[in-house]
Amino acid sequence: MPFKWIPTLAAALMLAAAPTFAQDDTTLGSLTISAAMARATPPHAPVGGGFLTITNGGDEDDRLVAASTPIAGRVEIHEMKMDGDVMRMRPVTDGLPIPAGQTVVLEPGGYHLMLMELTDALTEGDTFELSLTFEKAGEVTVTVDIGPRGMSGAHGMRHSDG
């Protein structure tokens, strides 16, 4: 077969075209915050989503209690989970536990940050600063990379307060 190299070339081209982010891990005490990213939004979108990973390498539990950014009027910690056949999203009002020795991932379809009252669209390739406040470790600011839009639409999702 004369074109055995085509699948290899195609894979290499896809990897080369994939966005890469240069954000470094941020450490605050025994906590390590990594992979901070948000999805690009359409113009005039009022909300966006923020995602990151928090690893607690210490012996003491902590809790993410607040977040803020200059690009949004407010930031809320949210959880998405199935309620029967419906995916529901609700704010986490008591903070997000970060157990000792464990990693908590804020990702689409689970815990995430809702960037509310955006001052401008989130544009792919840009970055913004996000301050995270932890119950015990204190406050730290991370740089958030803005990646491509994804999972447009929210079919079957209901936002509730409880």
UniProtKB/TrEMBL annotation:
Highest taxon, organism lineage: Bacteria
InterPro entries for the chain: LpqE-like, Lxx211020-like, PCuAC_sf
Record bears the keyword Signal: yes
Transmembrane segments: none
Region forming the signal peptide: 1-22
A Pfam family annotated for this UniProt entry: PCuAC
Record keyword Signal present: yes
Keywords linked to the UniProt accession: Signal
Record-given protein name: Copper(I)-binding protein
UniProt source species: Silicimonas algicola
